[in-house]
Design brief:
The protein has 15 helices and 26 strands. With about 525 residues, the chain is of the alpha/beta class. The protein has 3 domains: about 170 residues, Rossmann fold (3-Layer(aba) Sandwich); about 180 residues, 3-Layer(aba) Sandwich (Rossmann fold); about 100 residues, 2-Layer Sandwich (GMP Synthetase, Chain A, domain 3). Helix 1 runs antiparallel to helix 2 and helix 1 packs across helix 3.
Length: about 525
């Protein structure tokens, strides 16, 4: 560089710990977190964070150690993770609804030696995990209980001091485990660089209200938790709820004048179908962020009619979190651009996105290819799975497994997960396209389409439908609707009616569980 010698570390960026420390200073005495009657200001959170760092240091935790948290939505659970950011620890979130076997697998696979647990909700689970996992050396309770030392009580014995982050940008700060819908979950390695990039992209690309009062009803172990630092950076209020309930959602929105929230589509459907919506005061809502699974355009139009033009879609995945693309509020235009309601938006500014074929070549506009990404948002790789990482990074791109088209204006349209594509009689059929047609019918609340074994076609298209209250089953009408809209190949060979679709712990339709009902021991491989 023209003879210039740059000092080591000159281009070292911020860590997540740095962002949190600055957000606390900016927030001051504004409320930062709320849960039921509990309200914590930024200043109080900073003091608690300092105490927690000192307590963990006193118990021997140091940079590079691996921790996990098992808790319902609580500010104290994030406090532990925030301490991990400052200390350079590697954190793994455990989903509160997962099984003991799942929790044991994640702890063992990630090399976690210290577990933080909500003693009220998970004392028995913590005891069982401690008994079966010899590598789990330490157990701390987030409050008094029979399992492990009360880390909150210990932290109170320390006086707050100035906050400092000792982590490095390229330290792995988080292992995010994939949903496991296609096999054993894989640990996705996020460095501080990836997580900071995610937060900065959220802040620049998303439609944040000028005054941010955010409600998290989904687990903070997943996407909602990845929004906490962005809310903090805006000196906003992050309101938590332990679990999703439609009436509680309406009550909290009214009580805290919530301006922003994150919901998965199945939750939005529940809100739309709940009688409490008719009398609920949701006028404060300015942005409803949705994502994690596709949303029916027909139900999206219904949502805009009931809530207003407040919807904003995110698209991402564990391997490229939250911010691959965004469909902003003003781009939800059912009058002039109704087709865009099926889009996941345009790529974010700092992410390269291409649709590639199996040979790694970009497909033409309008054709289906796999969404592939490059840039600082992309994971480092899968934890202890070099072959899986190499497969995901083939051709020099992160392969998301999502198939999509791009229109002439640059909007992306996900047609389906590659593993969910149905091959019937030699034709490729994308279930999402059929689901979007089915949910146009006024009697249909939700629909999932899968391939089932068929002696003639190999796989036959089957629709599994949840009807709105009071509607009568009419399979022939639904099949005819799809046949007219998409053609005979896409038309379901059969329709089953059920009370509710199975969902994963993250609220996504669980097609693995759905397929198991029809494939049994011969369920097709979808890895």
């Amino acid at each position: 560089m023209h003879g210039i010698q740059t000092p080591a570390g000159l281009f070292e960026g911020c860590t997540m710990g740095d962002l949190i420390i600055r957000a606390i200073a900016r927030g001051g005495d504004r409320p930062a977190f709320a849960l039921d009657e509990q309200v914590i200001t930024y200043r109080e959170f900073g003091a608690g964070l300092s105490r927690m760092v000192q307590a963990l240091t006193a118990r021997g935790l140091k940079r590079g150690d691996a921790i996990a948290a098992l808790s319902s939505n609580r500010p104290e659970a994030f406090l532990v993770v925030a301490a991990g950011y400052l200390m350079g620890l590697r954190s793994t979130w455990l989903h509160p609804m997962a099984s003991e076997d799942d929790h044991a697998y994640l702890i063992e696979d990630s090399g976690v030696t210290t577990l933080f647990v909500d003693p009220i909700a998970f004392a028995d689970r913590a005891s069982a995990l401690k008994a079966r996992l010899p590598g789990l050396a330490r157990l701390f309770g987030l409050g008094p209980g029979t399992q492990g030392e009360d880390i909150l009580a210990l932290s109170q014995s320390f006086a707050p001091t100035a906050l400092e982050s000792v982590a490095h940008c390229d330290d792995v700060c988080t292992l995010i485990y994939t949903g496991g819908t296609t096999g054993k979950p894989k640990g996705v390695m996020h460095t501080h660089r990836v997580q900071v990039n995610m937060v900065m992209t959220e802040l620049t690309e998303w439609d944040w209200p000028s005054e941010t009062r955010f409600l998290a009803m989904t687990p903070i172990t997943h996407a909602a938790g990845a929004m906490i630092v962005a809310v903090m950076w805006r000196s906003g209020l992050f309101v938590m709820s332990k679990g999703f309930d439609a009436q509680r959602f309406f009550d909290i929105v009214e009580r805290h004048r919530i301006t922003c929230t994150f919901l998965v589509p199945t939750m939005i459907y529940v809100l739309l179908d709940h009688p409490g919506l008719d009398t609920a005061d949701v006028s404060s809502l300015q942005t409803i962020i949705y994502g994690a699974s596709p949303m029916s355009p027909a139900r999206l139009v219904e949502g805009m009619r009931r809530f207003g033009p407040v919807f904003m879609q995110l698209y991402g995945q564990s391997e490229a979190p939250n911010c691959v693309s965004t469909l902003r509020r003003h781009e939800h235009d059912p009058v002039n651009h109704p087709q865009r309601l099926a889009s996941c938006g345009m790529p974010s500014a700092n992410v390269q996105v291409k649709l590639l074929n199996e040979e790694g070549q970009e497909v033409p506009v309008g054709e289906v290819g796999e969404i592939c990404c490059r840039g600082p948002l992309v994971m480092t790789g899968y934890w202890n799975k070099p072959e899986e990482s190499e497969k995901a990074f083939r051709h020099g791109w992160l392969h998301t497994g999502d198939l999509a088209r791009r229109d002439a204006d640059g909007f992306l349209y996900i047609v389906d997960r590659s593993k969910d594509m149905i091959i019937t009689g030699g034709f490729n059929v994308f279930p999402r396209e059929i689901e979007d047609v089915l949910t146009r019918h006024p009697d249909v609340a939700a629909a999932a389409v899968i391939g089932v074994p068929d002696g003639k076609w190999g796989e036959a298209v089957k629709a599994v439908v949840v009807l709105r209250e009071g509607a009568q089953p009419n399979a022939e009408a639904l099949i005819a609707l799809v046949r007219e809209a998409k053609g005979v190949v896409h038309a379901p060979k059969s329709v089953d009616f059920i009370d509710s679709l199975p969902v994963t712990g993250l609220g996504k339709p669980d097609k693995k569980a759905l397929r198991a009902r029809y494939w049994g021991e011969t369920q097709r491989a979808v890895n």
